């Protein structure tokens, strides 16, 4: 258990006393994100939420660490805990200057990275839920601090539950069958909560099984039942309360929506920014209408006051952390930690010899000769939506320049001028405080712009004179933006070519077209059609491709840097369309490789890419957007001053076809993620190379190996460093069970351990493997169980390279058969087709119904024993006429109708179907299949 995990159970004395002293109106006022002061009780103004995904965000300069997906590549819980502590200390430093800064931080994101096209991929940790829980839990432990009672900050887990799509994110329903819910989604939250390192949870925008997450019965039915769960404060995501009765149309009005959310477990409403009045009006009306009670309000307020008491707010001196000051922001120790984190986040994906050489291209060593850093991302450090303001950031070019003397940079981007065909003049950047003006008859430096295509035709225009991006500021354009950014990006454009070779230019953020104003020559945005837009002749002043080719050819080593801008292509509100690298980035890699066989491909990105033939570049390295020390961290690895220790916490797939639809959350039936996919990955979960090779020599069960028990030992693995440098190997343990009662993952990560090996060293490491990691959710028993049988425990450096394995026999009762004569929840099926999980009632329970009433749906229930059943009863509701059938297994894998009935519109009750005699000869069936046709909903079934 992490340090001070018992703090969550420490006696909270003042919170209850304050609650007892508050009036009803004062208590209701506490339920909004922005709670007012209560001076008579010494309560200051308070608001939930300070963004801290990988550093303090939205509060000015702060130390910026690698994105969470990059931190996760370290697989280093101690490092991530130390990063969390540094971030929390900087939150306290900000609060020392501004008392309104919240010590309730809205981080980390623990949604497992189920789908790599998710726009918010950068915010998560891993596609494996237990690895997510371990790494995010370490970050929480750091954010919390190590005092036995008081918390440095109170971490908030985001976003409960099943949230991995931005398209229609507040109206789409994530379908979670029971196994996916319990085996994949819940563990990421349960770990940090039961470890006592999380104090709050934010709910997600989406629906789960047809019910909005903000009124989910899983909060009370699951989360609140876990150890430490009762004290967890539940906060809404921004604007989600009003979505319940607007976009989602789940409730008729605000009072009923707020009441349902409060009773479902919400403690704090994030709505209307810092204006609480509409939310408080809804809550008062809900109370007046009898939809909520004062006891409901008290429970929520007590949790919020408990959260605040944990931070030491109610102590005269602010508690043990109250004296932390602003000097902590950007503390040199934090900067050094940011460099360590950036270094340990780098993953060496490939390292082969360049053509005509014998040794791997990396490390570069002390004297690589002339190095060319090519690509726009090589000379800049980008932030994301949840970054702090960068300070003293170090680009890859700057990091390598500090390590080596002879380094050049080339963006590889075209420098262009744009002549307005109608006016014959060229827009120029001029003064950043004024709009672009087309006044020059011939282009000069002010009329030249770096034209960068970030993919799918989404382009930026940047003045090389001022380094400012062209942006829209209302009606006019100006070259005044230091970075691409904003909730709606204003710095991107799309060029629409005409048959005459000219282009019209559309501003993507507004959809408007650029037109040069008469008389003033100002570049303005027009709401008209493309036909009304000005057309521009594009003149290439300097070819980016040619410059990149020349820089690569003149260098001893070319480092080509590609990737994404975190505000473009895929981010919050926007999912990616493809795994492929943007074509302009692909072409840049090709031409650099052609010019110089000694090419290192560095990918700086928020998510995985499919590389196609470019994956055979001699050396391939990945890092997330690594924060302010990106360049130094990468230089540490490329040079060989430090060994590469990063390993992928997320699979890189080869092609889009390897992925399910982004809205298909049933990873079992869709055979997705590393757990179930049969596709060959480009780079598997856990993949990452060292500069010194490690061989896996033997694996044996430790402890009582005869019985195969892992509870008293684990697995002993012998590894050897066969190279000449120190190796830092991440030994990974996976499990499989082909003969399992249920469909077991093809490989399931169950343990891992880092081991340092000197050159030539052989070592045997013992890796504990908790037996409960083999548990699956039993749809017959209705709970997590380790089924008896044979398991293969496999060991290796990644999920797709497992050279060693041992057999493990597990005994026990297991699930047992389904109970004949008992009512079985319809959602606990083994298999289904065209079946949707839907609310049984608006606020509780899950039932099943056809996804489309025009097509029949089937649900298969296995695990029956005994004689052939005589009757099957169903609990049904019908919003229109329908038909049900009971089928039993036939010969040759077929199904045979044994009973059927029509269901009239308006039916709501039990329907008993007597099975035809002689449906099966001999023993009874192991499986029963229910067929639903039409607008029917089934909540339970009984086989007697």
The structural class is alpha+beta
Amount of helix: 10-25%
Distance, first to last CA: 47 Å
Instruction: Note the overall shape.
Output: globular
Number of discrete helical segments: 18
Query: Unreliable runs, pLDDT <50, ≥5 residues?
Result: 1-11
Q: Could you give the order of strands across the largest sheet?
A: 11-28-27-26-12-13
Radius of gyration (Å): 30 Å
Proportion of strand residues: 25-35%
Largest sheet, strands/sense/barrel:
6 strands, mixed
Mean pLDDT: 95
Q: How many strands in all?
A: 48
How would you describe this structure to a colleague?
Strand 8 and strand 9 (211-212) form a beta hairpin. Residues 1-11 have low confidence and may be disordered. The protein is of the alpha+beta class and 944 residues long. The strands form 15 sheets. Strands 11-28-27-26-12-13 form a six-stranded mixed β-sheet, sandwiched between helices. It has a five-stranded parallel β-sheet with strand order 3-4-5-7-10. The protein is built from 18 helices and 48 strands. Helix content is 19%, strand content 27%.
Notable features of this structure?
944 residues, 18 helices, globular, 19% helix, 6-stranded mixed beta sheet, disordered N terminus, alpha+beta, single chain, 5-stranded parallel beta sheet
Secondary-structure topology with pairs:
Elements (H helix, E strand, L loop, with lengths): L13 H8 L2 H6 L4 E2 L10 E2 L2 E2 L16 H5 L4 H21 L6 E3 L22 H16 L9 E7 L12 E2 L3 H8 L1 H8 L5 E4 L3 E2 L2 E2 L5 H4 L11 E3 L4 H4 L10 H11 L12 H12 L5 H17 L21 H13 L2 E5 L19 E4 L21 H8 L3 E4 L3 E7 L5 E3 L8 E4 L8 E5 L5 E4 L6 E5 L2 E6 L11 E5 L5 E5 L5 E4 L6 E4 L9 E7 L1 H10 L3 E7 L19 H13 L3 E6 L14 E5 L6 H10 L33 H4 L17 E9 L11 E8 L5 E10 L11 E10 L4 E6 L8 E3 L4 E3 L3 E8 L7 E7 L12 E3 L5 E3 L1 E5 L6 E5 L6 E6 L8 E8 L3 E8 L5 E9 L4 E7 L12 E7 L2 E8 L1
């Amino acid at each position: 258990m992490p340090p001070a995990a018992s703090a969550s159970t420490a006696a909270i004395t003042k919170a209850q006393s304050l609650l007892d002293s508050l009036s009803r109106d004062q208590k209701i006022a506490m339920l909004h994100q922005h709670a007012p002061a209560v001076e008579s009780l010494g309560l200051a103004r308070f608001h939930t939420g300070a963004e801290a995904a990988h550093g303090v965000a939205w509060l000015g300069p702060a130390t910026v660490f690698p994105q969470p997906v990059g931190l996760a590549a370290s697989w280093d819980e101690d490092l991530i805990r130390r990063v969390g502590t540094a971030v929390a200390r900087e939150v306290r430093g900000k609060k020392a200057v501004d008392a309104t800064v919240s010590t309730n931080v809205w981080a980390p994101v623990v949604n497992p990275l189920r789908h790599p096209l998710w726009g918010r991929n950068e915010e998560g940790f891993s596609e494996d839920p237990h690895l997510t829980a371990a790494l995010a839990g370490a970050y929480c432990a750091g954010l919390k601090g190590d005092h036995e009672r008081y918390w440095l900050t109170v971490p908030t887990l985001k976003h409960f539950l099943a949230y991995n799509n931005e398209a229609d994110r507040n109206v789409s329903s994530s379908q979670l069958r029971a196994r996916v819910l319990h085996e994949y989604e819940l563990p990421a939250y349960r770990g940090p909560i039961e470890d006592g390192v999380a104090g709050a949870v934010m709910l997600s925008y989406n629906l789960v099984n047809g019910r909005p997450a903000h009124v989910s019965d899983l909060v009370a039915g699951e989360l609140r039942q876990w150890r430490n769960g009762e004290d967890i404060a539940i906060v809404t995501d921004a604007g989600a309360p009003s979505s319940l009765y607007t976009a989602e149309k789940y409730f008729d009005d605000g009072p009923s929506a707020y009441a349902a959310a409060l009773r479902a477990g919400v403690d704090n409403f994030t709505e209307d920014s810092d204006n609480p009045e509409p939310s408080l009006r809804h809550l008062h009306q809900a109370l007046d209408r009898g939809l909520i009670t004062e006891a409901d309000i008290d429970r929520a307020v007590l949790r919020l006051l408990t959260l605040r008491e944990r931070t030491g707010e109610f102590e005269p001196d602010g508690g043990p952390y109250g004296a932390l000051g602003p000097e902590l922001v950007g503390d040199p120790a934090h900067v050094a930690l940011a460099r360590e984190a950036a270094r340990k986040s780098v993953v060496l994906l490939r390292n082969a010899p360049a053509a005509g050489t014998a040794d791997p291209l990396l490390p570069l060593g002390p004297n690589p000769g002339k190095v060319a850093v090519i690509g726009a991302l090589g000379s800049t450090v980008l932030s994301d939506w949840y970054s702090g303001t960068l300070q003293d950031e170090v680009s890859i070019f700057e990091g390598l320049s500090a390590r080596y003397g002879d380094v050049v940079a080339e963006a590889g981007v075209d420098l262009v001028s744009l002549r307005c065909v109608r006016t014959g003049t060229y827009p120029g950047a001029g003064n950043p405080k004024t709009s672009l003006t087309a006044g020059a008859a011939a282009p000069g430096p002010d009329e030249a712009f770096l034209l960068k295509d970030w993919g799918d035709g989404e382009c930026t225009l940047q003045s090389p004179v001022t380094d400012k991006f062209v942006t829209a500021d209302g009606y006019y354009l100006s070259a005044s933006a230091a970075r691409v950014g904003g909730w709606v990006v204003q710095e991107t454009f799309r060029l629409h070519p005409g048959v005459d070779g000219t282009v019209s230019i559309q501003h993507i953020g507004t959809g408007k077209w650029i037109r040069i104003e008469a008389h003033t020559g100002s570049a303005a945005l027009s709401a008209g059609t493309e036909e009304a837009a000005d057309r521009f002749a594009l003149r290439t002043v300097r070819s980016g491709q040619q410059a990149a080719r020349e820089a690569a050819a003149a260098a001893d080593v070319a480092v080509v840097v590609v990737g994404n801008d975190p505000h473009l292509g895929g981010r919050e509100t926007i999912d990616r369309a493809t795994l492929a690298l943007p074509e302009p980035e692909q072409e840049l890699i090709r031409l650099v490789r052609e010019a110089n066989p000694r090419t290192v491909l560095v990918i700086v990105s928020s998510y995985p890419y499919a590389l196609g033939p470019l994956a055979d570049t001699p050396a391939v390295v990945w890092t997330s957007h690594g924060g302010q020390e990106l360049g130094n961290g990468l230089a540490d690895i490329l040079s060989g001053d430090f060994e590469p220790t990063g390993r992928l916490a997320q699979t890189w797939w080869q092609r889009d076809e390897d992925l399910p639809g982004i809205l298909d959350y049933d990873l079992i039936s869709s055979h997705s993620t590393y757990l179930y996919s049969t596709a060959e990955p480009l780079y598997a979960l856990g993949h990452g190379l060292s500069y010194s090779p490690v061989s896996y020599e033997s694996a044996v069960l430790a402890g009582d190996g005869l019985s195969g028990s892992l509870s008293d030992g684990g697995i002993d693995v012998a590894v050897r460093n066969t190279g000449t440098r120190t190796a830092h190997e991440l030994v990974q343990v996976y499990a499989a069970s082909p003969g399992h009662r249920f469909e077991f993952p093809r490989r399931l990560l169950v343990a891992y351990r880092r081991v340092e090996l000197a050159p030539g060293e052989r070592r045997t490491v013992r890796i504990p493997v908790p037996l409960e990691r083999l548990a699956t959710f039993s749809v017959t028993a209705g709970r997590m169980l380790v089924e008896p049988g044979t398991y293969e425990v496999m060991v290796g450096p990644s999920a797709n390279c497992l050279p060693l394995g041992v057999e493990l026999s597990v005994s026990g009762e297991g699930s047992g058969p389904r109970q004949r004569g008992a009512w079985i929840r319809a959602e606990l099926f083994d298999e289904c087709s065209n079946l949707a999980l839907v609310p049984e009632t608006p606020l509780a329970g899950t039932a099943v119904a056809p996804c489309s009433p025009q097509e029949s749906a089937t649900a298969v229930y296995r695990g029956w024993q005994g004689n052939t059943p005589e009757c099957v009863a169903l609990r049904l509701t019908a919003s229109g006429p329908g038909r049900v059938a009971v089928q039993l297994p036939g010969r040759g894998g077929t199904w045979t109708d044994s009973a059927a009935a029509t269901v009239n519109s308006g039916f709501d009750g039990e329907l008993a179907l007597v099975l035809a005699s002689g449906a099966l000869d001999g023993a009874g069936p192991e499986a029963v299949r229910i067929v639903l046709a039409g607008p029917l909903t089934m909540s339970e079934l009984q086989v007697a």
